[in-house]
Amino acid sequence: MSPEVAPALRRGWRLQWEPAQQRHVLLYPEGMVQLNESAGAILALVDGQRHEEDIVAELEAQFPGAAEIADDVAAFLTEAGRQGWLEAGP
Question: Which residues form a coiled coil (predicted)?
């Protein structure tokens, strides 16, 4: 996913908190992906309106002092795009 694009979850996919598992999951028609805490925090901000830099700024505000947030977000969004989880927002 390019930093110039505001990523959105792929149509038909949704992020959901699973209390029984105490984690976010990504639901899609054929199944579910269990997410770690970092992936859940990033995808919670993926709305088709925020660009990568906006997501990074939000996470830096939520987790002050965390190192390399920008690099982690960029790597995650790239991989999520490769996996087909994301598409360009409207």
Answer: none
Cβ within 8 Å of residue 32, ≥6 positions away: 25, 26
Q: CA 12, 74, 49: angle at the middle one, nearest 5?
A: 50
C-alpha pair distances (Å), 8 with each of 36, 39, 46, 80: 19, 14, 5, 11
Residue carrying the six token digits 């709305």: 47
Give the predicted TM-score (pTM) of the model: 0.90
Say yes or no to pLDDT of 90 above 90. Answer: no
Residues present in the chain in total? 90
Cα separations in angstroms, 83 against 59, 65, 77: 22, 29, 10
